[in-house]
Design goal:
There is one protein chain. This protein has a domain of 144 residues: Jann2411-like fold, CATH 1.10.3300. It contains seven helices and twelve strands. The longest helix is centred in the middle third of the chain and has 19 residues. The protein is globular.
């Protein structure tokens, strides 16, 4: 699965990630060069499919990554946004801020503005051909270069399709799900039946505690 060029998979270090202070590595007109990077701890990788497993990942990413602590929380669950091996938290914060701006424009029904903002730095996508045995024909797949481009691709699809999203009503579930034609009905409140049952159980336990 890892080497499949037609499926976008992404690694997460199972031992986690940490922030490392780097510098000074030299001097500039402004003084010593110092910065922080996020580095994996060197554990075995866990692979997942962001586009298939978390089609609404761009929304919790934008929400979570509003601070360095939030960036670490996201990275420990979903991995770095780049394939360089390390990444500065400021890079991730910048991408999250941009996606939050896109969300704000979409919430204001300004799809043109959201598209213009995304098109300043559009996602990088490859489009390989593969043979589909079921349809007995060649078809294309869109495969992002990195997780950063996957998140931007999800935002682009939302703008193009005018998709609506809702956060799972189960507290603690990070997932968002799409509403409307070809997706879930507008009345849906939970990502899955498991989330609905977990929320009901939590509500019952709370009522018992305060009863």
């Amino acid at each position: 699965m890892v080497d499949n060029p037609f499926v976008f998979v992404w690694p997460v270090d199972q031992d986690g990630f940490g922030i490392e202070h780097v510098g000074p590595t030299g001097t500039t007109l402004l003084g010593s060069v110092q910065y922080d990077i996020i580095r994996p701890k060197g554990g075995p990788p866990r692979y997942y499919r962001p586009l298939d497993d978390y089609p609404g990942l761009w929304r919790p990413f934008a929400e979570t990554c509003s601070s360095v602590e939030g960036v670490l929380t996201f990275v420990r669950e979903f991995g770095l946004l780049t394939d360089r091996g390390t990444e500065g938290p400021d890079e991730i914060l910048s991408t999250a801020e941009r996606i939050r701006d896109i969300v704000t424009l979409l919430d204001d029904s300004d799809r043109a503005g959201a598209a213009g903002l995304l098109n300043r730095y559009p996602p990088r996508i490859s489009e390989p051909l593969y043979w589909n045995d079921r349809s007995a024909r060649f078809e294309t797949r869109l495969v992002p270069f990195t997780l950063r481009h996957a998140l931007l691709h999800q935002a682009a699809e939302t703008i193009a399709g005018n998709y609506q999203w809702r956060r799972c009503g189960n507290e603690g579930c990070p997932r968002w799900f799409r509403l409307g034609q070809g997706a879930h009905t507008i009345r849906r409140e939970y990502y899955s039946n498991r989330c609905r049952v977990a929320h009901a159980r939590r509500q019952k336990q709370g009522a018992t505690t305060h009863g």
